[in-house]
Specification:
Radius of gyration: 24 Å
CATH class of the largest domain: Alpha Beta
CATH architecture of the largest domain: 3-Layer(bba) Sandwich
Helix content: 25-40%
Low-confidence stretches: none
Number of helices: 13
CATH superfamily of the largest domain: FAD/NAD(P)-binding domain
Number of strands: 21
Bound molecules: flavin-adenine dinucleotide
Number of domains: 3
Strand order of the largest sheet: 1-2-3-4-5
Mean pLDDT: 96
Shape: globular
Structural class: alpha/beta
Length: 479
Amino acid sequence: MNVETHSTSVAVIGAGPGGYAAAFLAADLGMEVALIDPEPNPGGVCLYRGCIPSKALLHVAKLLSEAEESRNWGIQFGKPKIDVEKLRSWKDGVVKKLTGGVGQLSKQRKVNYVQGRAEFLDAGNLEVSEVSGGRRRLRFEHAILATGSRPASIPSVSLESPRVLDSTTALELNDIPQSLLVIGGGYIGLEMGTVYAALGSRVTVVEMMPGLLPGVDRDLVKYLHDRLGRLFESIMVNTRVAALEEADGGIGVRFEGEGVTKREQRFDEILVSVGRKPNSSGFGLEKTRVELDRRGFVKVDEQRRTAEPSIFAIGDVAGEPMLAHKASHEGRVAAEAIAGHKVAFDPRAIPAVVFTDPEIAWCGLTETEAKELNRPVEVVRFPFGASGRALTMGRTDGMTKLLIDPQTERILGMGIVGAGAGELIAEGVLAVEMAAVATDLRLSIHPHPTLSETVMEAAEVFFGQSTHVYRPKKRPIVA
Ligand code: FAD
């Protein structure tokens, strides 16, 4: 077959939040850009199979639980009737609207969107197998690798069965099983477990480590564990799945470990969410000088340049944390670096949010990291129980904490658990990035009554002068 060769200044491989942010900025900076991805529009995992469909479903889960809880305030709704087909098409509609909108933005910028899969021929040429069946060669000056990641599996207990789901198939919402086992107590497992529990499944979570959300500060996780303990059928920590087999119209599971209540159990379906793996093989990277680390992530420098000078890598394929906003930021850094700007990927605070109920969010230094680093910090906490806004919402199960340098009084990190934590954490990011001190937060007037006041009052706690928490004065406020 005759393969046509095209040339472009920048070829971006993968159109997730990293790839399309990079492509759009490169185009805005005047470069000729090709963006390659098998989907009909840009969006990647985040828009098609991750952040967006999961948050649409979590919104519905929240609505269901709020309707249920409103009993406590004298409002009683009937038992909800769930039309799974309609719910699925609403969720799909959200995805279509967003990816269609991003597709429009791509056209407006004259980005050459190629629907297909790219493979490296060498450090300056790609071959693209188009979804339509065609093939083309693309010569590039620079390439940005943004191929993302995919769900990991546990080879020792894998089972090919339509009853064994990963995050992608769980989001398809093909049915609502009566019982669901979630293997892995990370954020994706807990978010999807929350959705299925709200829709009526009896959900069990099994986690190998001693607690849910390994690595996250325990005081934040405790609030979530307490509430999920009521929502879920059971949570087993320090426990692993030793075997899976098709059994009795479901899946038979054998558990091992300290948390086992019953060694053998049967579930209608199983969701395996044990992490994600970078997409860094199978498309010719070995024909370039790009290097991978032990876990398969592409090695990059602070401008996100790989060991092959013409190739950059961003997003999930370039390492942790595997989050959409980190991918987009890296994408913009890479585009600017290609344009010759003096830039570096050097954040002080990459926020992380677990969109469960309550939400958990953190940024900057965490208490867990401070302990590991043996770094002296002062930690101050403001409980949602002392927040007027949290009381009006019936959601006093939360807390805002600040990690402060005891010498300089600089804000080093923030952690929040509670309603709205994901929206509130942005203030922490700004505080950490701007090198704000506790007094900056204390003296900034926050609107009343809002949950954002918990940030200001946590800073007041640092000086022993919070209006709504009595904690004897510890340190003088220097005017
Ligand atoms: P991706 O979004 O993974 O996109 C990579 C794209 O590259 C894909 O479209 C893929 O098909 C394409 N591709 C791969 N190989 C090739 C090739 N050879 N040629 C052409 N194209 C190729 N993150 C958050 O920040 N917030 C959240 O709330 C959140 N929720 C999530 C929920 C779930 C269920 C999941 C699975 C993930 C979630 N994430 C969330 C993580 C987030 O989706 C990723 O961090 C983000 O999508 C990474 O972006 P990326 O640009 O690196 O790549």
